Structure formats: structure tokens, C-alpha cells
User: Fold these one by one.
Assistant:
Number 1:
Amino acid sequence: RWEMRVGVAGPFRIVQLIDRTGAYAAEQMRIDFVANASHELRTPLASILGFIETLSDEAGADPGVRGRFLKVMFDEARRMQRLVEDLISLSRIEAEKHRLPDERIDMAELVEVVRADIAATDAERARAVITAIESDVPAVCGDEARLSQMLHNLIGNALKYGRPGTPVTVSLRREGGMVRLSVADEGEGIAPEHIPRLTERFYRVDAGRSRMAGGTGLGLAIVKHIVERHRGRLDIASKLGVGTTVTVLLPPATDAVTKA
Ligand code: ADP
């Protein structure tokens, strides 16, 4: 995509060709994002409106029907709520892009906090989470709320896509001067051609399965932004039928970071 500008300078005509490929790609991504987000919101909204209409006529008089319909409406409204919360998170994280995180975070502690959070809402699921944490892992320089969100998204995915009854292993250790966190599941795995695209907004391998499990399609896009903001690295390794391991490398905090 080139833009041509023609000008005159004295006796010369100047033709300037400007490469706009990047700008067009960014614009296209923005258009796709708004279209996808609207579509994702429209579907549950249409369903809620449909059920309200049905409840307003005779069918609504039957308590059994009413109970069932209200349950569906509740689930659909929760789906919209999750999506709106993820959209807000994404835009906040993008807005914070240029502000470096400055809290001293003990990742081992944070992993335990997140595990307790998961246990508070679903004790059964939390039992699948096992941790392998080395004792000498240095603190990282980070934003606690965001790192917690990153852990929730990664552990949540491992629980969602892992086979029932299999463990999710969260490991933390020091590696080559970095803090290495990994979340491994024994699930269906992901075919290699999908892996590079998983951090795109709304990219899903199986949209139906993701929605059934309560996914928004934004979890890994949020994780990628958080990792980038912490100057870290994200790696997804997977084998079909075996499982998936997501690894995050974060730089350790320097002594200059004192804020607790
Ligand atoms: P979602 O809300 O759909 O889970 P994510 O952005 O978190 O969205 O993940 C994008 C897609 O990547 C998912 O829809 C799923 O297809 C795939 N995926 C993510 N984590 C895993 C995993 N641990 N095992 C298998 N597939 C996964």
C-alpha cells in the first residue's frame, strides 16, 4: 500500500512514494476488532431479548419454564459481563503501555494467592492445580493486579482445556537470570499452525468450545500485553493429544525497586 504525493520545487516536479502498509494493517486490525467485539456482544444480547419476549407472554406464567429461561438469561448476561470486563482490561493495559510497573512482587506468593482465589469460587477445580516452586526465585518488578490477572488467565485456560481429572502444574524457577513461570496442562493440545495466532484478539481454535467453557477469546491477548509491559517473554508449546505449556520469562527486580 503506497501513497503518492506530488509537489513542485522550482523547476522540478517531486514525486514522493510513502509506504503506508503498516498504517493500513493497523487500521484494518482496529476495524476487525470493533466488528468482532460487536458481534460477540450482539449474540447474547439477542438471546436475552428473545427470552424476555417469551417470558412476557403466556409461557412466562409457567414457573418451570420461567426458572429455566431466567437461568439462560443469567448465563448470557454473565457472558456479556466477562466480555466487557476483558475489553476494559485490554484498553486499560494499552493505555498504561508507557508506564513501567514499579512494585516488588514475589511471584511465589502471588501464585498461592491466585490458587486461593480459584479455590474460593471452585474448590473442586482448584484441587487440580499443583505447584512446583523453587525457594530462591528473585522478586520481579511488576504490577501486582496485572500479574495476578495473567496468572488467572493462564491457569484458567489450563483448567478449561485440560482433560478432567488431570493436573495443572504451575512451576516457578530462576533461569538464566530471569524468573521463569510455566503453566502446564494435560489437555487436547493445540495444532502448530494455530500457535502463532493465539494471542490475537478473538482468535480461538474452537469457538464453540471456548464459549461453552466461558471463554471470551481475549485471555491470551491480555496476557501478551501484560508480559510485554513487564519486558518479559511469552512462549506457548503444545503437542496435540498431550497438552500445552505456556511459559513466561520475567526480568528480576533490581535493588532500586523498593516499593512493596
Ligand atoms: P478463550 O477465552 O477462548 O480461552 P484465550 O485468548 O485465552 O481465549 O485463548 C485463545 C484460544 O487458544 C482458545 O480459544 C483455545 O482455542 C486456545 N487455548 C488457550 N489455552 C489453551 C490450552 N491450555 N490448551 C488448549 N488450547 C488453548
Note: The two ends are 49 Å apart (CA to CA).
Number 2:
Amino acid sequence: EKGGYATYMEKEIFDQPQAVADTLLGRSTPSGDLQLDDMRITEEQLAAVDRVTIVACGTAAYAGMVAKYAIEHWARIPVEVSLAHEFRYCDPIADEKTLVVSISQSGETMDTLMAVKHARDLGALTLSICNTHGSTIPRESDAVLYTHAGPEIAVASTKAFLGQITACYILGLYLAQLKGGSYAEDAKQVIAELQDVPSKIAAVLSDVGRVREVARFMADTRSVLFLGRHVGYPIAMEGALKLKELAYIHAEGFAAGELKHGPIALIEPGQPVFIVVPGPDTPHGLHGKVVSNIQEIRARGARTLVIAEEGDSSVDEFADEVFRVPHTSPMLQPLLTVLPLQVFALELSTAKGLDVDQPRNLAKSVTVE
Ligand code: F6R
């Protein structure tokens, strides 16, 4: 069942080209129009949506953070991401023009389910992004967009995360198409570009030898920091979460711009820091800003582990290690940049002799509040 891999986690990491390809499959009609699954929301209702609230926990919430950037950019609808267990208790504002999107691999997470029920009570439209057919959350929602990542056995989420991000893109592009005009035109281009992503994921995964090597030498590490910006920010958070869960190492993800507002005080000689570098064509000069961050922490002795696009030589001077990902448009980068971080956590956990498939204290689906 592990398909020749030592653990489910490793298998699931290497299943990711398929997870993304399958989630994309059959979504677009020959004319390039997107379609969702079970739809009990009319196009008219969706077209009237003036606010999106995403509710999710853990890794799924990081997929939701990626979705915020994508949906706001492509469909120009304000998006808020709320941890599902906080949503009900912050007196949320939602009505029939609010689309509440829940993201859940299992479809059984109690916190997320309760948030969906609360949203429904407020009169909001509810849409579930879910990996498990017939589970509770999609049943309780007005519409469903299934991720086709296949069953995820390892407790910590990997391929379901990529499926979730992919589904979030589909939703964002769907909303953009509903808007029509130039929104719809732009969406078509992204849909075409998405088709190339699975082979890029496979390319990254075929070349992870150096990440593994670096991880194996870090089994004694006490703390690792992760920096990212724009869609790289949730990826930094996810990289940190994977390391906590799998290797029991203290890890923190930051928005790179936040560095000078505090976390830079943590940088001392030898401190390992992963930096997710936006592609050079990311708007607003963000690439250059993150390269400056690498320079700043390197000057203070940090050990810089950089994830950057192929051909981006601007990082070489300041990087102790560079892990490369193929070029893609900035919004789609998370599907590639998270891969070295997953492999790093897997390998470090293995080097420490831990059970990567079943980390201590965790359960695959959290069905209590
Ligand atoms: C992280 C992880 C958890 C889940 C979270 C939500 O590796 O597995 O953070 O992402 O518990 O679970 P679902 O997606 O089933 O609602």
C-alpha cells in the first residue's frame, strides 16, 4: 500500500503531482469554463457575493491564506481567513451575500463543522472544499468542491494541502469567470498555466537529494525559522508546522516584512532560517525585498536555506543552500515552494528515528472541540 515507500508520508509527498492533476481534472469545459461539484447555490447568488470568509484549521487554514491572495487578486472580492475555532466566538459578520468557504481534508473536523453551521444560521452561503466524499462538512454545506488527492493516511497533511490550494485556485478563477470581461480572460490564462504545474511538482520531487542531505545533518537542531512573503507567507507557516509535527523541533513561520518588527532579534550565529523567495516577476518589487531580508539575516550569522526559482542568481551570494523550483506565475508558486519544506521535515523526522506517519499527541481527524 505504501507503493514501495518506507512511510505513508513519503508516498503521499510523492503522490502530489497526481493529487493536483486529479483535482484539476474535469473541472473545465472545452470552452475553458470552470465547474464545481454539488451545487445548491445559483450562479445568481454567487454573482452577488460581496465577501468571502474562509474557515479552517491548521494546514487547511494555510491553504485558506493562499486563497485570500488568489481570490482577492483574480476576482476582486474581499476575503477574510478565520481559524474555524475562533470564527463563532468573534461575533462574525455574514449574510446571504457572504460566501463562507470551509476547507477540510477529513470533512469531520468539529471546529470547522461548527463554524459552517454557525455561518448557515447567519444566512450565509456555505461552500466546502473537502477531500472525503460523504463526510459531514460537505453534507452540511450548500456547495462542494472536492479535492481529489486520494486517501491521506499519514496524520500530518501533505497531498491534501496541495489539493486544497488547487481547489482554492479553481474557486477563485470560477468567481473571476462569473465576473466576466477581463477577469474571465485573465482567469483562462491561469487555468492553462495550472495544467503545467503537476509536471513541475514532479520535477522538484525528482531532485530532493540535497534537501534530504541537509536535513540529515540537522537532527540536533533546536529551532528553525521560516520566512515568506505574499503567498510565500502561508508556506513559511506550513513549513514550520510540518517541522513541529514531524520532528518535534521548535519552528516559527513569519511574514518576511515582519522581521524588523521583532523576530530579527532571534537571529544569532548558526540559526537556521528557511526563506521562500518570491519569483523575480512578483509585483511590487517583493522579490528584491526578500533578497534584502536574506542579506540582513546572513550578516547576523544566520544559516540561510533558500527556496528560489531556477535561474534566480540574485540569491546565490547570500544563501548557504539554495533549493530550486521551476518558474511559474507568482500566485501558483506555493504548489512548488512547499515541496522542499515537506521533504525537509520528513527527512529530519526520519533522521531522529521518529514515527513520521503517526506523530505523538496528534490524531488524523479532530472530532472534538
Ligand atoms: C497538519 C494537519 C492539521 C490539519 C487540521 C485540519 O499537518 O494535519 O493541521 O490540517 O487538523 O484538518 P482537516 O483538514 O481534516 O479539517
Note: The first strand starts at residue 51 and ends at 56.
